[in-house]
From TrEMBL:
It comes from the Bacteria. Signal peptide: none annotated. GO terms for cellular component: plasma membrane. Residues 10-257 form the ABC transporter domain. Keywords: ATP-binding, Nucleotide-binding, Transport. The lineage of its organism: Bacteria, Pseudomonadati, Pseudomonadota, Alphaproteobacteria, Rhodobacterales. CDD domains: ABC_Mj1267_LivG_branched (cd03219). GO terms for molecular function: ATP binding; ATP hydrolysis activity. It holds the Pfam family BCA_ABC_TP_C. This is ABC transporter ATP-binding protein. The keyword Magnesium does not apply. Gene3D superfamilies: P-loop containing nucleotide triphosphate hydrolases (3.40.50.300).
């Protein structure tokens, strides 16, 4: 899709977040077109995860605005943004270790009638129907993520890579239009990495937009047509992966980080 004519699904303008005297994010703006997979890269401590915290609503900006599907959500809580289609995964996946994969998905779903309504006969029938529908949806999503074989296993038995797939499956339960992925490839073995890339492409083909933080440059290059580079809390540059990889400012930022 053309970013010039299509209104952005998510737009951040001049976001700043200070922690004490330090600006973890400083005057950051970005715009994500519907259907795109946008990459967000930068050395350790650049402010990438803080940017996700701001966009998803777990941290409030010191300054700046965030628009989701054209609406200002800067002051809205994370669960409201999730209900409007903005989902995220965490750098360190946090499944409930003693719950099965299916159960981990069922507790992730939104707007359960059972939590809102007192139990009369009609409500209990509705709850039973919702329960069935949710289980069906959980099975479909586990299937999509190639986790069906592990559906009834406790999450603690999963490998690092399988946890990343489960984390993505949990977000999918909320029917997100946009998913923020924080380092999905970290700790994932090479064969499962191929599965992860393939699954992200499959979900994207269903119309879901992604913003991807990733240090694995091979993965970023394969998935993204556009990259944003952060360093020291600010935007360093943006462009096509090949151009960004050759940009002296980017090389300098990474080498500077490695030397520090
Ligand atoms: N809650 C907080 N309180 C104080 N400082 C914080 C907080 N969260 C982040 N920071 C600081 O903000 C800066 C950016 O951190 P952030 O985690 O956003 O970087 P990152 O780009 O995600 O790095 P990495 O690639 O290592 O995950 C760091 O200096 C970090 O110490
Ligand atoms: Mg991070």
């Amino acid at each position: 899709m053309d970013a010039e004519v299509t209104p952005p699904i998510l737009e951040a303008r001049s976001l700043t977040r200070r922690f004490g005297g330090i600006a973890a994010v400083r005057d950051m703006s970005l715009s994500i077109a519907p259907g795109e997979i946008l990459g967000l890269i930068g050395p350790n401590g650049a402010g990438k995860t803080t940017m996700f915290d701001l966009l998803s609503g777990s941290v409030r900006p010191s300054a700046g605005t965030i628009r989701l599907k054209g609406r200002d959500v800067t002051r809205e809580a994370a669960h409201h943004r999730l209900a409007q289609g903005l989902g995220r995964t965490f750098q360190i996946p946090r499944p409930f270790p003693d719950l099965t994969c299916t159960e981990n998905l069922l507790i992730a779903r939104q707007n359960q009638t059972g939590e809102r309504l007192f139990a009369n006969f009609l409500a209990s029938r509705r709850i039973a129907a919702e329960e069935r529908a949710a289980r069906e949806k959980a099975h479909e999503i586990l299937d999509l993520m190639l986790l069906t074989r592990l559906a009834d296993e406790p999450a603690r038995f999963l490998s690092g890579g399988q946890r990343k797939l489960l984390e993505l499956a949990r977000v999918m339960m909320a029917d997100p239009a946009l998913i923020l992925l924080d380092e999905p490839a970290a700790g994932v073995n090479p064969s499962l990495l191929e599965v992860l890339i393939d699954r992200i492409q499959a979900i994207n083909a269903r119309g879901v937009t992604f913003l991807l933080i990733e240090h694995n440059i091979d993965m970023v290059t394969r998935l993204c047509s556009r990259l944003i580079v952060m360093a020291n809390g600010s935007l360093l540059c943006e462009g096509a992966p090949d151009d960004v990889a050759r940009d002296p400012r980017v090389i300098e930022a990474y080498l500077g980080g490695a030397a520090a």
